[in-house]
Amino acid sequence: MDPLIKIENLSVAYDKVPVLENVNLEIHENDFLGVIGPNGGGKTTLLKAILGLKKPESGKIHFSKEMSGRKKPIGYLPQVRHIDRKFPITVFDVVLSGGIMQNRQNAKSIAKDKAEALLEEMGVIGIRNKAIGELSGGQMQRVFLCRALLSDPKLLILDEPDTFVDNRFEGELYEKLEKLNEELAILLVSHDVGTITSCVKSIACVNKYLHYHPSNVISQEQLANYNCPIQIISHGEIPHTVLKHHHQ
Amino acid sequence: MSAILELFSYDFFQKAFLAAVFASISCGIIGAYIVSRRIVFISGGITHASFGGIGLAFFLGFNPLLGAVLFAVLSALGIQFFTKVAEIREDSSIAIWWSLGMALGIIFVFLTPGYTPNLMSYLFGNILTVTTSELWWMFMLNTVIVLFFAVFLRKILYIAFDEEFARTAGLPVALFNYLIMVLIALTVVLNIRVVGIILILSLLTIPQATANLFTNDFKRLLVYSSLFAFVGTIAGLFISYFLNIPSGAAIIFTLVVIFGLLRLVKSFV
Fold first, then answer.
1. What predicted TM-score, i.e. pTM, was given to this entire model?
2. Residue A100: which of B38, B160, B169 has the nearest Cβ?
3. B183, B204 in Cβ contact below 8 A?
4. Which residue has the higher pLDDT, B34 or B129?
């Protein structure tokens, strides 16, 4: 089986300052990849390169046949902190924007039905006519997840969907994602290592370079070989994984 | 009441009324976009830069609106160029073009021999002196804007709300941004005669702020803004006529009063 996406020797820079160097990564069908790393380590830049929003300095990103074409079947949930909360747009319009380039017949009514079904499933159908600025963090993430799913993507990319949300929503979100993962591949960026390691199948540590761990458990030996400067703090009985430093 | 009806029998007033209708629709729609996207300051820069074109037209003796269009589009592109290519901070590049246009305008007007009687009406507007050919231009601009927004409403909305997401969805974001920038420049220039360079930002922002009190739906905001702009412009026109004060200032004053009253009412309801 060809990978959906194959990244080869990818380097990305902002104003000639390298942010990602020599990154190699494959994303296969039904993968659930957690991308972790420090702030400024290049997690979002990696997403932007995959989404075609940032041109790489060198290296290639190959898309499999089903992923090719102008409208790639990728669902994208951006960081909500970049959203203008005062923008005059309703929840329903936000969700509908996920299907804008679908050119099938009756695309509009199909998209509307689908958008309603998604809002229903996420339990936010009641706020469909509200302005985006009136929502709580959790509601907002649900709405943006609906938008990302409207185009029936093969790959779902989420950039820190756990910001501005409470713990209860976080739990629900990961349950939803695990269920969605039966149908599609997921790439989840988070700075919260503790929570994502419980649901992802594999982990990529991004800090200018990318280290791939094919399981969600990182053994002591692996830790000894790498240098990934991530720390989490946890109190009490919470099961957690501490990832030690990668040595480049 | 009969005094008002009598006014409509005058040719100059019929023209002023039509100008008010056209200005309300174009400024209502374009202004709603500008406000939603938070590019009011860019629009201010373009507006004031167009004064350079008016001065140049006085100096060389061609149609001032043509000069204004030229400078408006040039400054819109110039702001983009300064920001993206020359890497000057956006607010600074806006201010540079804003003041450069005004300065050029003053230099050209100063160099023009003789008295320039219309200058004040470009700076502060005079809806009562709008000509038939200007009305035709305004009519055409309105047609283009209404058609463009009717056909591409969803695409315009999605790009304005989340440009990055629109790009991942494959929308031609840059093309839309340039087209709308041109429409903004044309709207500003063709409405200069109504409220003038210095006051036009008001028609692009105050009715929108009023409309925003009642809706958070983009489509409704376009319509309500046009309606509030129309009410304010017409009321201002009457006030200007009966109190014998300049029309541009009267219109803006009315727009602000309407906004203030409705804002107050809203906080008590």
1. 0.87
2. B169
3. no
4. B34
